[in-house]
Specification:
Blueprint: H1 3-34, H2 43-56, H3 71-83, H4 88-113, H5 115-126, H6 129-134, H7 141-180, H8 187-196, H9 201-231, H10 241-248, H11 272-282, H12 288-305, H13 307-322, H14 333-339, H15 351-361, H16 370-385, H17 392-395, H18 399-414, H19 427-434, H20 441-458, H21 462-475, H22 482-494, H23 498-511
Helix pairs in contact: 1-4, 1-5, 2-3, 4-5, 4-7, 4-18, 5-18, 7-8, 7-9, 7-16, 8-9, 8-16, 10-12, 11-12, 12-13, 15-18, 15-19, 16-18, 20-21, 20-22, 21-23, 22-23
Length: 513
Amino acid sequence: MEPGTAHKLWRLRWAALFLGAFALRAAFLLQWFDLPYLGALSADAWAYDRWALEIAGGALVRDTAFYQSPFYPYLLAAFYKVFGHTSAPLLWLQALADAGTCLLVMRLGERAFGERAGLWAGLLCALYRPFIFSAAVPGKETLAVFSAALFALLALRAGEGGGRRAYFLCGLAGGWAALLRTNILLLLPALLLWAWQREAFRRVLKNAALPLLLGAALPILPATLHNFAASRDFVPVNYNGGFTFYLGNAPEATGTGIYPPGFSSNPLLEETQPAQLAEGALGRRLKPSEISSFWFRKGLAFIAENPGAWAKLTAAKFFFFWNRYEIPDNYDLQFIAGNFPTVLGWPLVSFALVGCLGAGGLLLVRRKEASGLLLFLFAGYLLSVLPFWVTDRYRLPALPLLLALAGGLAAALAARDRRALRALWALPLLVICLLPPPFNLRLAEGAGWAQLVTVYAETGRGTEALAALEKAAAADPASVFPEVVLAASVSLERAGQKEEAAALLAAASRLLK
């Protein structure tokens, strides 16, 4: 094939993948606009909206260091300034970014395993249900996935003789990713370890480590300066790491982010409560870094005092990471796909397929070649998650790497390449991936309906709120908390629906005995 023809086909393939991926995301986004969720934001989406409104109103500097990752709220605030108080324009940008992620993943697969592997990886990415869903949800996850994929691709280019400039650009991508999800920073040492086993240490230090770290520091520097100006404390990005670590390593920890008794998951208290408890325990005011250190030490104390329980907890987190179930955090993908007629109900790609193919793809890598970098980066990200907890959102940034690995195995299977037999060694991971999730799915179903009680009430839809309450109680009465029903009734009263509010309380009294 002539070079000009090959280039045309290459551009056509990229355009088809991008447009196809965007069409799916646009179709779901249009459906999402008609669902009730955007009318009453939940958890992190609500917190981002509140923070963005403060920034758009002129509060560019907080009164203390950043508690959450700062990039997304500032971006959302910029969109609010231009378009008004609506998340729709940014959600369209997220759909475009997620379609762009498909191109990055295709290129990752090409560079690691060849052209056909890239095609498989890109196609799997375009059809990946959790990506389509998260692109429509107000939150940082889609941009975190895009930045992780961009970092991985730039890392491949740098590792294949790109020089200092390539490592510097890779560092810039890593620093940006850290402003979205701080644990992605662990991919930087993973990249350097891969480079070190291919070249002499001094050469890696001079040509890779220094430009990489300099590049990463530049996007992070504004956050660090903000935090010092606001709190006279050294906090590179944000200071919720210690408390998050404790939640993942507390005596009551389950590995899925369940808050222990006495701790509230209310976004209004998420920052202030850990600070108050830490200061109460030590009897003095604490700087943000000291608050984080207090909870980090408590998590370490649990590990030191209960090594057996910690080992079991870490094994559970590993299981959750590889299992096909999308552990819900802010929104339940499985619930929405099963109860609303949207694109999510189509026969799309799930983690069950990507996890199995990706696990097998790990056995195809060659440690010192481009494919080996995928292994190092994936291991780095996995190790950045296990000390904390596992949910659907926390797993997402690993998927560009896993999709590229999945593309490698898919291409080998399609070509009947004998190397694909190596995937049999990944059988334990395949079993974990396909096992039924060890959760009460009736409780999860009830929690989905209970969330809708709040959503419907806050949007003044009393009849729908009552119907959702009945379905939640039918699924599992334990999924409905009295304070949720009380808050929903207050929302209905404020909307002028006093009869519906009274009916909701009466139904709760009858159903939740």
